[in-house]
Fold:
Amino acid sequence: MTLVLVLTMITYYRPSGFAPAILDYKWDLIAKDVTDEGQCEKKQKIMFLKTHKCASSSLQNIFFRFGENHNLTHVLTNEGNYLNYLDGKFHRYVLNNTPWEKVGMSYSILCLHARFNKPEMEAVLGPGTEYVT
Structure:
């Protein structure tokens, strides 16, 4: 059973100063959903939006390993690790000349650097995608 958890810190600003104080920790279940019966269900369509300086490279590595261990496919470019186009947002167009796009591969996980563009990301990953940041 594979379980991917993300620790999210919820912060607030103290009235007496500007320094954030930790209010609460919350564990979010990413790769699995717990059904009403308490059973876990593996997610196979995941879009992870990387955020700078938030351990996103560590999480990206977890998603890459999860995909590799479960025979899932990743959205990749021909070179580099950014999926942005001229306007700075993600567009499916950036995949057009990749070998995997030419053979019509379907994708399971998008976790490279990209600016959120839901219609274009949905066009690449398809329905039922879990969006995580």
About this structure: Residues 1-31 have pLDDT under 50 and may be disordered.
